[in-house]
Amino acid sequence: MRELLEMGPPGRPVTTTVSLGVLTSLFQRFHAEDIVYCHWKSNEHLDASMLGETDFDLLVDRRAALALADILSQMNVKRFVVEPFHAYPGVEDYLCFDPDTGKLIHLHIHYQLTVGEKHLNGYRLPWEEIVLSTRMLDQRHEIYVADPHVELVLLVTRAAVKLRVRDLLLGMLRRTYFPHKMLGEFAWLARRIERDRLLDVARRLVGPRAAGLLVEMVDASPPKRRLLAFRRSSEPSLRSYRTYGAWGARVRRWRREARTLWWWVENRYYRVPKNSSRTCPHGGLTIAFVGADGAGKSTIANAIAEWLAEEIAVVPISPPERARMWARAWRARSHGKIVVLDGWARPRLPVDVVVKLHVSPDVAKQRRPEAPMERLHGQVATVKALAYPAGTRVLDFDATQPLERLLSDVKRGIWDSI
Predict the structure, then answer these.
(1) How many Cα atoms occupy the beta-carbon half-sphere of 245 within 13 Å?
(2) CA separation, residue 119 to residues 84, 114, 116, 252, 260 (Å)
(3) How many domains does the chain have?
(4) pTM given for the model
(5) At 318, is the pLDDT very low, low, confident or very high (cuts 50, 70, 90)?
(6) Cβ(105)–Cβ(20) under 8 Å?
(7) N or C: which end of the chain has fewer CB within 10 A?
(8) Distance from C-alpha of 301 to C-alpha of 85, rounded to nearest angstrom
(9) 182, 215, 241 - which closes a domain
(10) In whole angstroms, how far apart are CA 45 and each of 50, 190, 256, 350?
């Protein structure tokens, strides 16, 4: 997406927003197929989402699940799964690729509203019908979004049920219990609501007392310490929406926190670029980059690993010759991760995709002047002659083209191979 400035009457600039092409096509298809959905939270950041810079949180009518899956498959939008300690019922993860920018866009598909504290999300709010029935069409982006009154109730409820003892202690040092990032959303929504309409919606969802406190929070702006009072007042309405008992919730949360910490330590130890736990549901993938010295395979391999790791669990390995690295690559691939090998892949490990970077010996000599020409000739000949089993997909690229264009072509080829 980019913003264009046009001159509007009387000569004042008007901002026109243009979305990423893949997102425009996707939502147009949703509308054509009558998929009932809406972007249900963080609409303050909708511009950034349309840029592919933040995730999409879409609430979808569960009756449209099969039709939605068919549309996403036809548009090359691919489903991924997260580790059990990050997974929640009624939520699916999809990624789509924008060929014009090379960005991966994460679609968080919700069929039910599961909210709560981090590592637990212990409340299932049965409010899907009211969220979808009151949705509004955002005219700038041509995408359905939640009504600001409903979204504000959801925002404050989500913040309230996230409160833990540690948050209350930290809140004593601040003016509010609200997380900093939620304060901006609260203020943005507060400017878009009608007081009577908010009171009516909140009464239906969280009860009259909590509804009155919510209106007071809007009038106070910033909401200060009323969030704790809102939680206490809404608790009778929300108690029946709990999905775990008190001790079961604690045990589950502690286990998930410990597993998340271990995942983070493991990724830091292996120098994984990011900390995503999203894996391929149909099995892992091994991608090997091969090319002569000076072809830029290390540069391309590192760039691809960082690109994929933004949204997918990736294990980069360089150099891949040592036995310990092969064992690690095998385990990662077996667990559904994408393994990126910087170097020639020997038959000891199944290789799904081979990216061959072709360059002439003269160009390789210019890039690596210290390398003997005889060795470069041999490497170029070896890369051209490399043969792999029939099941291996081989992608050939001219490594002498500009780096930006080469990266774009490699990304497109890899995405089609996943």
Answers:
(1) 2
(2) 11, 12, 9, 8, 9
(3) 2
(4) 0.87
(5) confident
(6) yes
(7) C
(8) 29
(9) 241
(10) 9, 15, 28, 42
